[in-house]
Amino acid sequence: MRFQVTVYLKPEVHDPEGQAICQTLSGAGYPDVTHIRVGKRYVIDLKDDCHDPEKKVAELAQSYLANPVAETYTIEREA
Amino acid sequence: MTIAIKNSSVQKAVGMVSFPGSNCDQDLAWALSHHLGFHVKWYDYKQAHVEDLKNLDALFLPGGFSYGDYLRGGALAAHAPIMNEVRAFAHAGGPVMGICNGFQILTESHLLPGALIKNQNDRFICQMSQLRVNPQNMLGAKLSKSNYDMPIAHGEGRYYADEKTIEKLQGEGQVLFQYSDERGNLADPNGSLLSIAGITDPTGKIVGLMPHPERAAEVVLGSADGALFLNEYFNYVM
To answer: What is the ipTM score, two decimals?
Structure first.
């Protein structure tokens, strides 16, 4: 089974990489782009007989994949 | 592997934990052994159980790019087998200093609060820095100077924590060093909250700092303040 965990900086934390990309694109012919934030997406495959996969992925996201001090995350399970 | 010491009567020993990608360990070991006369014991990051850690006078987590900065700087090293022993050593009151990537490892291990994230200007910053000492800090109060010159070299050195944590750091005197200019006014090279360059736990024994004292260990490097700071740290914890 497959899950996807997407990690972003929290909205209140300045994202310099996103800002740099936005400014560059704005000058490269896309002035309508006002804001970009950069995230990371982790694709996680678990064994089919994994017990309580949602809980395990939530633990992975909270304790390893994201740093809750400055980052937030979402979890999606692929059908 | 242990580094041979010149003076065989030296009893004091410190530990160095090196991870794959750590690259400031040799410089730090040189400063500790050559300038301060310590015997340096190296520890393999894969060792889950180490008997003699408790006999050490201090433990160091050096700078570099452990695990290639994969996941986040210091995030994978924080879960290396050796870190159980490092945490136990720290919780038992053992002095631990994390420098640059070592500071990142300490925050990812929750031995120090907050996080080190990408520099505000999205650039790798490599420059000499003036560091203002916070005299309210337990270790800071024992330092002989009010300003130390040590270089920084990092892409993810911006100190960040939520408001509650920042208030606690200030209240408990945990801020050790702040980036400043030559006049002692706070400076902002990388967007760190409160211009934080280094913090400690409330006792002052667990230290995390982004600047490199080992790169300021002798005048020919541009500053000898790093060796002075290390020496004063040992005087405080021993």
So the answer is: 0.81
What three-state secondary structure class fits B26? helix
Q: Which two tokens stand for residue A38?
A: 């950069």
Instruction: From chain B, pick out residues whose CB is under 8 angstroms from the CB of A65.
Output: 71
pLDDT per position as a tens digit, B84-127: 999 999 999 999 999 999 999 999 999 999 999 999 999 999 99
Strands of the sheet with A39-45, listed across from one edge: A39-45, A2-9, A71-77
What distance lies between CA B110 and its chain's CA centroid?
Answer: 14
Contact at CB, B120 and A14, closer than 8 angstroms: yes
Shortest alpha-carbon distance between residue A18 and chain B (Å): 10
Please state whether B47 falls in left (phi above 0), alpha (psi between -120 and 50) or beta.
Answer: beta
Distance from CA of B76 to the nearest CA of A (A): 9
What pTM does this model have?
A: 0.91
Chain B residue at shortest CA distance from A64:
B75
B214 is catalytic: yes
> Phi, psi (5° rounding) for residue B91?
-65, -25
Q: Tell if the CB–CB gap between B75 and A14 is shorter than 8 Å.
A: no
Beta carbons of B125 and B189 less than 8 angstroms apart: yes
Q: Write down how long chain B is.
A: 238
The tokens describing A48, both together, are 């089919």
Catalytic residue of the set B100, B108, B154, B156: B100
The continuous run of DSSP H or E covering B39 comes out as: strand B39-44
